[in-house]
Amino acid sequence: ALVSMRQMLDHAAENGYGIPAFNVNNLEQVRAIMIAADKTNSPVILQGSAGARKYAGAPFLRHLILAAIEEFPHIPVVMHQDHGTSPSVCQRSIQLGFSSVMMDGSLMDDGKTPSSYEYNVDVTRRTVEMAHACGVSVEGELGCLGSLETGEAGEEDGIGAAGKLTLDQMLTDPEEAADFVQKTQVDALAIACGTSHGAYKFTRPPTGDILAIDRIKAIHARIPNTHLVMHGSSSVPQDWLAVINEYGGNIPETYGVPVEQIQEGIKNGVRKVNIDTDLRLASTGATRRFLAHNPSEFDPRKFLAETTKAMTDICVDRYEAFGAAGNA
Ligand code: G3H
Ligand code: 13P
Ligand code: ZN
After folding, report:
1. CB–CB of 226/174 below 8 Å?
2. Which residue's CA is the closest to the ligand 1 atom numbered 4?
3. A Pfam family matched by this chain, by name (predicted)?
4. Which pLDDT score, from 0 to 100, does residue 156 have?
5. Lower CB count within 10 Å: N or C terminus of the chain?
6. What's the rounded Cα separation, in Å, for the pair 79 and 63?
7. Within-domain flag for 262
8. How high is the pLDDT of residue 293?
9. 83 CA distance to ligand 2 middle (Å)
10. Using a 6 Å cutoff on CB, does residue 196 contact ligand 2?
């Protein structure tokens, strides 16, 4: 069944678990996530970015998600629009039937230039007014995502601040978060706490606290009724990097956010955990390996089935690790 983000995250908060929010662009990603959710009895957040709409087209994206709901009627699903760059983009998604939208006012509508606080409050407040009138939840963002190690915003096409960020920009301020939530009434807030988008988060194997856990704690204490969201939460599986590079790929050494750090975040109020890169890496690795082993194969269903399997395994791991399993 289609449910709102508010409803789903309220349950997660009451029961102290986190929910992975996977980005979807095609049939295989949607099926992999649903198969994993079915196996583990987990609630599902499927999110489509502007890039996904550009790739698949809004009607296909919408109907892929509706098909998932039809095939798995016992699993609650949030249809979420990821990183909306303006109230009008969010309005269009609401019209299309999304049950949740993100208004990312931390950046201007070019998706690159950090915005002023006043701008962020204004676009987010307007989006909440519109969305709540339609029973749709809203996620806002305060602070600019950036790796605490490199100061880089990350590599996602279209979304992410350009150039180096200061430590101040890269950590959401708890007092400002309280003011922001009070003024905008958002249901969920994406915070900057040391993660960044894409595969290149850390250059060395992360040890200890690579996220600003104390900051997450302080924000949660200040806005306990607003669900915290962590973007850029791929763990960048080293085994899939090795497979990609073994079979003709060329991806330099790089590290993501360890699952244990995400679990620490969940203990301290993080409820929605955004993951895109991990599924991309798994499907690319599975495709390269299958085609290298089966050079005469030309039926795309053969390697696409491998990608579905690879992605399903990662989804199962995350549902279990974040405590979502058993909560559908
Ligand atoms: O936030 C970014 C997501 O990973 C989506 O990436 O814009 O390439 O679809 P995309
Ligand atoms: P990753 O690039 O770490 O998978 O993050 C995805 C994301 O935050 C989508 O909004
Ligand atoms: Zn994001």
Report:
1. no
2. 276
3. F_bP_aldolase
4. 56
5. N
6. 11
7. yes
8. 98
9. 10
10. no
Helix (H) or strand (E) holding 103: strand 100-103
Q: Which amino acid is at 13?
A: A
Digit-coded pLDDT (tens) for 41-76: 999 999 999 999 999 999 999 999 999 999 999 999
Residue entry with tokens 């690790």: 321
279 CA closest ligand 2 atom index? 4
**Is residue 328 in a domain?**
no
Burial of 309 (0-12, 13-18, 19+ CB in 10 A): middle
Look at residue 40 in the predicted model and tell me its pLDDT. 98
Determine the atom of ligand 1 nearest the C-alpha atom of 276.
Answer: 4
104 is known as an active-site residue: no
The domain total for the chain is 1
For ligand 2, whether the C-beta of 81 sits within 6 Å is no
| Residue 16 CB coordination number (10 Å) | 11
pTM recorded for the entire structure = 0.97
Give the C-alpha separation, 216 to 84, whole Å.
24
Residues that place a CB less than 5 A from ion ligand 3: 231, 274
User: How far apart, in whole angstroms, are the C-alpha atoms of residue 209 and residue 265?
Assistant: 10
Residue 326 domain-assigned (yes or no): no
d(CA 315, CA 305): 15
CB-based contacts of 136, cutoff 8 Å, min separation 6: 4, 94, 98, 99, 100, 101
pLDDT at position 157: 54
pLDDT at 148: 87
Q: Give the CATH number, domain containing residue 214.
A: 3.20.20.70
| 104 pocket-lining for ligand 2 (C-beta < 6 Å) | no
Q: How many CB atoms lie within 10 A of CB 67?
A: 14
CB neighbour class for 295 (10 Å; exposed up to 12, middle 13-18, buried from 19): exposed
Give me the residues of the chain with pLDDT under 50, please.
none
Judge whether 327 lies within some domain.
no
d(CA 113, CA 247): 38
